What does this fold into?
Amino acid sequence: MADDDAPDFEVPVGLFQDLEDLKAQVARLTAQLQALTEGSGAEPGEAMAEVEPDAGTEVAADEDEWQFPPFILLLDPPVYDDELRSLIEWVEGVLVPGYLAEPSADARWCHLWFEHPVAVARLHAAWLAWQELTDPATCGYTGPSVWHRDHLDPCLRDLRGSSGPFAGCTKGEHQIGHRMPGTVPSAWRHENT
It folds into this structure.
């Protein structure tokens, strides 16, 4: 059929977007299914055996090498400082103006949140999820909804609750010592030896 013989009708733009979402989901599910069926010689309920990499697959040279994105509390300076700086930009530029109302006894917030390790850890996790789930190429158009439901809402509920890391912080007063443990065990820190 020649191009001149093509039917003349309009297709809603939303239909194309829905089709692209479906294509992306099918591709992800196909890859998952392939990985599960090829990598498993076990019966249902049995653990999967280790799969040898294909000849063309690159394997990390160093088993101890960190995979990114890293858990921020395990980073050492200056990598920690750079990651925290980026997190602060996101929290102060996106989260605070868009999602945080005036702090109250029921919804606490500390302006020095970056001095609370629990807050840094939770906000960093929410930020990593936000980066992935706000990109339609990786999550389709439902990603932001999933991010709000599964990441932001629980994070803010835990951070701002009466037993959260800001429990001792009140308007204008910052108390860091109220929730800090003594020393963090060395097993929790990645040390280059």
In short: The two ends are 68 Å apart (CA to CA).
